[in-house]
From TrEMBL:
GO terms for molecular function: transmembrane transporter activity. It comes from the Eukaryota. This is MFS general substrate transporter. It is found in: Membrane. It comes from Aspergillus ibericus CBS 121593. The keyword Cytoplasm does not apply.
């Protein structure tokens, strides 16, 4: 039957958008932070990957914590709102840093600043990265659970793909 019939309802559509957006946030960060440190600090692959650990650590610790808190409290919308706000602010700040601008002078943004923004991004994205897979099962009829999970997987993969494609186009055309 497919998943298109789920898109006639508000909740699955909003979950699709949120899941796609957080997929884009997560994978743009994972892809471009190491590249940033390789280009601006001369790091090798291992050192630039180590510099991604603040984001990864907060992401993987916030995911189960938010899932546990969400199931205990019974509300999911506040997690999406708070996570989106917490992730949006450092994403905007990171994009407006002088060393992320095209043809800027040598980088003068400290690694501590980048680490702080990574921590906030991990906290915000972790607040709702995997929650869509549980929430979709609660907002649709039980026989539709497999279609709902398929829709969320499609959203996450589409967000990653579209996010990396758009950010790559911006990166290439601004540098």
């Amino acid at each position: 039957m497919g998943v298109h019939h789920l898109l006639r309802h508000k909740e699955p559509v909003l979950l699709f958008i949120a899941c796609a957006a957080v997929g884009a946030v997560s994978y743009i960060t994972v892809y471009y932070i190491p590249i940033y440190f390789q280009f601006t600090q001369g790091d090798d692959a291992i050192h630039s990957a180590v510099r991604l650990l603040p984001f990864i650590f907060l992401l993987i610790t916030t995911i189960p914590a938010s899932g546990a808190a969400m199931s205990r409290l019974g509300y999911y919308k506040p997690w999406y709102l708070a996570g989106s706000i917490i992730a949006l602010i450092p994403a905007i700040l990171m994009g407006s840093l002088p060393s992320f601008q095209p043809r800027s002078s040598p980088p003068h943004t400290s690694a501590k600043t980048i680490y702080g923004l990574e921590i906030l991004l991990g906290l915000g994205a972790g607040a709702y990265t995997q929650d869509s897979f549980a929430v979709i099962q609660a907002v649709i009829p039980p026989p539709e659970a497999s279609n709902g999970l398929t829709l969320m997987l499609l959203a996450q993969l589409s967000g990653m793909t579209l996010g990396l494609s758009l950010s790559g186009a911006i990166f290439v055309n601004r540098v």
